[in-house]
Amino acid sequence: MIDLAVRSLGGAVIAASDETFAEKENLIRPDVPLFQPATFGHKGQVYDGWETRRRRSPGHDWAIVRLGAPGFVRRIVVDTAHFTGNYPEECWLEGRYVDGYSPLDDAGWTPLTDRVKLAGDSANTFDVPEGPLVTHVRLNIAPDGGVARLRVLGDVVPDPRRLEGVSLDLAALENGGRVEDCSNRFYSPADNVLLPGQAQTMGQGWETRRRRGDGNDWLLIRLTGPGHVRQLLIDTTHFVGNAPGAVRVRAADSPTGDDGWTELLERRPLLPDTPHWFAVDSSVRATHLRVDVFPDGGLARVRAFGQLAPDGWEALVSRWKAGVPN
Questions:
Q1: Region 106-125 average pLDDT
Q2: Residue whose C-alpha is closest to residue 132's, from 91, 169, 99
Q3: What would the pLDDT profile of 75-92 be if each residue is shown by its tens digit?
Q4: Spatial CA neighbour of 9 closest among 227, 176, 130
Q5: Taking Cα atoms as reference points, which of 67, 66, 65, 8 lies closest to residue 191?
Q6: What distance in Å separates the CA atoms of residue 4 and residue 66, rounded to the nearest whole number?
């Protein structure tokens, strides 16, 4: 599942009841929370997370996250890493759908989880029953304390109104694409190649271990829906001594195993630290792409620009309408 809240997808913590000890923005950082004992700033021990003051009145603390992409929440992780004597006792998550840029108010929130107990210094994981499409979530903690990271895992459903009539990146996470499988995730997650924007470091791409035997590494990408790719971007930016030597891309419409694949881009050499643009046959209908890199190495980004097929567009609109609250 995709972390709908993570900052690298465009998530933002837009409000919090309090952040006296540690900033709310830390909640959605993509990296693992760190801790160095006896590191004191002007607010006390420095924590890589969100921490509120000790509550001396009734009520509870909360933080509101605007998701990087609308979607259905399936699971949450409330990570209290390094918070041992100052973590919340309980938490619960609420969600809501906001149309466009409408202002937030206190009405319209739907419970996504029950009120649940938390353990300190732990990745507390809770499944979310099937619920509505949401654009924002509110993490409530009781009565106060610190949370290192919030992961809001689920399925992206892009707003079709912003995609209608335009060419789009059919592979992008924010548009509902994702990496279904890959040969190797040794150094970094494969889904990184579908994140918005340019990778700022090598660690923000996908890199495999060094291959010592036969074969090659690969990615299996599920597109937003059935569509036609017109142009591919295979970007090796930041990969200088570890870029693949070559790439090949094949396309398939609802593939089963090795059957039904059509070569979209024949094997082509790649340069290090370079974005490569390739025009491809837009008549090929595809739901999936297989990106083969030879023999191994890293990619910063993969883009597949094109348009949804009519049935792909209808399925996207139907899914969106079914999830949006009336």
A1: 94
A2: 99
A3: 999 999 999 999 999 999
A4: 176
A5: 8
A6: 9
Residue type, position 59, single letter: G
- For residues 225 and 315, the answer to whether their CB atoms sit within 8 Å is yes
Q: Could you give the number of structural domains in the chain?
A: 2
Question: What is d(CA 80, CA 286) in angstroms, rounded to the nearest whole number?
Answer: 42
99 alpha-carbon distance from chain centroid: 21
CA dihedral 193, 194, 199, 203 (to 10 degrees): -40
- The pLDDT tens digits of the residues spanning 185-194 come to 878 889 999 9
Give the integer Cα–Cα distance in Å for 119 and 237: 41
**3-state percent breakdown (helix, strand, coil) of the chain, nearest 5:** 10, 40, 45
323 in a structural domain: no
- Token readout for 241 is 């001594």
The DSSP symbol for 210 reads P
Q: What is the CATH number of the domain that holds 57?
A: 2.60.120.260
Alpha helices in the chain (DSSP H): 310-323
In a shared domain, residues 198 and 294: yes
Compute the mean pLDDT over every residue in the chain, rounded to the nearest whole number. 93
Entry pTM: 0.91
- Residues 41-62: pLDDT tens digits? 777 777 889 999 999 999 999 9
